[in-house]
Amino acid sequence: MGSYEPVLLKNLGVEGSRTLEVYRQSGGYAGAEAALKMSSDEVVEEVKKANLRGRGGAGFPAGVKWTFLPKDRERTILCVNADESEPPTFANRFLMENDPHMLIEGIIIAGFATKSQVAYVYLRVEFHEQFHILQRAVDEAYEAGLLGENILDSGYGLDVYLHRGAGAYVCGEETGLIESLEGKRGWPRIKPPFPAVEGAFGLPTVVNNVETLANLPHIISRGPDWFKSIGTESSAGPKLFCVSGPVKRPGCYEGPMTITCEELIYGDDYGQGMVGNADVKAVFPGGLSMGVLTGDEMHMKMDFDDPRNFGLLGLGTAAAVVVNVETDLRDVLMNVARFYSHESCGQCTQCREGTSWMYKMASRIAMGAGRVEDLDLLEEVASKMGMMPGYSICGLPDGAAFPVRGLVQKFRSEFESYVSQQRAGRAEAVLRVLN
Ligand SMILES: Cc1cc2nc3c(=O)[nH]c(=O)nc-3n(C[C@H](O)[C@H](O)[C@H](O)COP(=O)(O)O)c2cc1C
Ligand code: SF4
Question: Which of 151, 174, 319, 417 has the fewest Cβ atoms nearer than 10 Å?
Answer without folding.
Answer: 417
